[in-house]
Specification:
single chain, 516 residues, mainly alpha, 3-stranded antiparallel sheet, two-stranded antiparallel sheet, 54% helix, elongated
């Protein structure tokens, strides 16, 4: 096995380049590294917003396809590689390719000597269905009938010739694909572990600059041996990372594993306020029993599993009695309305080609919604409903709505959609359950204004009472006076526990409180 690293550096880095010595040092380390653990990585084609034939197929998938093509049974050896998204060791690939080449030659010899349709099919090891799929206008029943002596001699000979040509074409295709897979074995693959997009400025600025970190020899790429116009500093105790700008989609369990409908949602999201406040939208997913919905979900999951079982049984068992039509029928029932690959391409196209601008009507819709919400917090004691960050979020949502339509104009319908989504989010997690009013603090701090005022009053009450008692303010006295001030006893007990957990009050002795 060769190592393409040296060839790569020889063609990319010139001797006059100040980074040439570093590149050659990397080549030497690469040449000294044994290759028996090298693998062909799984394909990224299914994750790319590109045509499927732009990137090579995964080695495991291609080997399985080649085994089917030349009439070899599937053993299940490479199924874990596909299920777990593993690569295949290069030595294993080359051993398998050697077997496939031997198989191609044996089949070619057997088919050349075959005189009947049955002999041709036996030579390649195909089923009647596999052969019929390669012969236009022929079904498996036609093939079975001809092999049992049906039709006249002329037609049987014609089918035999067509079958022989189809097999030879398949073997030629197998040769090409084997060579293509073999050529990939000569490459040395490095795992990309980090991609950071950074702004680039100055005379050498270009549209995109990629700075890729490759472990453990990350200096080869990230220090600019191949890529240019990017700087990574890690010298003399100075470690600098350039800023990255990207969108973030996060998913997490609530603080206690399940949302409590009787507690403020903000308190159950265990993230720092500075981080939570930067999310444009936050949605809660709750698990509420519903007989109809549960039945639909159960039916969908069971049908999906059944489709997978049929497909596995058909592909992995040589004596499977399930037809392809049966598998396709069940699979079609659970297939998504929009194929994932098509959706990826659609999103990528919209991102690259649509740059919408806001119409005056859309601007007015967003402005009126924002100003109306803010006006609710004009009273001195009223909570602040939303911050300016929500206005920026509305703009981004409206832009996204226009992009989904592949439009360059943000229209009123886009602004209305953004407002509707934002309002739903605010009602879900940004509303104070005590007052029924929007409160930005519910999201950004997890504590509503009413709760904050209650805590302030309770702290002041404890401070006043503790001066009356040598051992601190008795808890029962604090709760009694809080009740006189209109606070529910259970609420007072809850807030006292919260204050103790936060360290704002402590117990000098049991059931007595002092402020810190």
């Amino acid at each position: 096995m060769g190592d393409s690293t040296e060839r790569f550096v020889d063609q990319i880095v010139t001797t006059a380049d100040e980074r040439y010595a570093e590149a050659r040092s990397f080549v030497e380390r690469s040449n000294e590294t044994p290759r028996h653990h090298d693998v062909l990585p799984p394909s990224a084609a299914r994750d790319a917003a590109l045509d499927a034939d732009v990137l090579p197929p995964s080695a495991a998938r291609e080997i399985r396809a080649l085994r089917r093509l030349v009439g070899l049974r599937l053993t299940g050896k490479y199924r874990p590689h596909l299920d777990e998204d593993y690569g295949v060791q290069i030595e294993t690939v080359q051993t398998e390719l050697s077997r496939l080449r031997d198989r191609v030659e044996r089949v070619r010899e057997a088919v050349a000597e075959a005189e009947t349709l049955g002999a041709v099919r036996d030579g390649i090891g195909w089923s009647g269905r596999q052969l019929a799929e390669r012969l236009a206008g022929v079904t498996k029943d036609n093939i079975q009938y001809a092999e049992t002596g049906g039709y006249d001699r002329s037609r049987r000979e014609s089918l035999a010739r067509r079958a022989r040509d189809a097999v030879l074409d398949a073997l030629d295709d197998a040769d090409r694909r084997i060579d293509a897979l073999d050529s990939r074995c000569d490459l040395r693959y490095y795992r990309v572990t980090d991609i950071e997009t950074v702004p680039n400025e100055g005379d050498n600025a270009c549209e995109w600059v990629y700075d890729v970190t490759v472990e453990p020899t990350n200096t080869f790429v990230s220090q600019g041996v191949v890529l240019h116009n990017s700087i990574s500093i890690s010298k003399a105790g100075i470690n600098a990372t350039l800023k990255s700008r990207c969108s973030l989609l996060g998913a997490a369990n609530p603080k206690y594993g399940r949302f409590d409908q009787y507690e403020p949602i903000g308190e159950q999201i265990d993230l720092e306020p500075a981080l939570v406040s930067r999310f444009d939208l936050i949605f809660t997913v709750t698990d509420k029993p519903d007989e109809e919905e549960d039945a639909n979900l159960a039916e969908h999951i069971l049908t999906t599993n059944y489709a997978g079982e049929l497909h596995t049984h058909r592909t992995e068992t040589s004596t499977s009695n399930y037809t392809e039509e049966e598998v396709e029928t069940v699979t079609g029932e659970v297939a998504p309305t929009i194929e994932p690959e098509l959706l990826r391409k659609y999103v990528a196209y919209a991102k690259r080609n649509c740059f919408p601008t806001m119409t005056e009507a859309a601007r007015a819709e967003i402005r009126d919604f924002y100003v109306d919400l803010r006006s609710r917090g004009a009273d001195e004691d009223a909570p602040v409903p939303v911050t300016a960050r929500k206005l920026e979020a509305l703009v981004r949502l409206a832009e996204a709505s226009a992009r989904v339509r592949l439009s360059d104009d943000i229209e009123v319908a886009d602004a209305e959609r953004a407002v509707r989504i934002a309002r739903h989010c605010l009602e879900d997690i940004g509303m104070d359950p005590e007052t029924g009013e929007y409160d930005a603090d519910m999201i950004e701090t997890g504590t509503s204004k009413s709760q904050r005022d209650r805590i302030k009053d309770l702290l002041s009450l404890i401070a006043d009472i503790e001066d009356e008692y040598d051992e601190g303010a008795p808890v029962d006295v604090v709760i009694e006076r809080a009740e006189e001030g209109g606070m529910e006893p259970s609420t007072a007990e809850h807030e006292i526990e919260q204050l103790k957990q936060k360290g704002e009050v402590y117990e000098p002795r049991t059931d007595h409180l002092r402020t810190t």
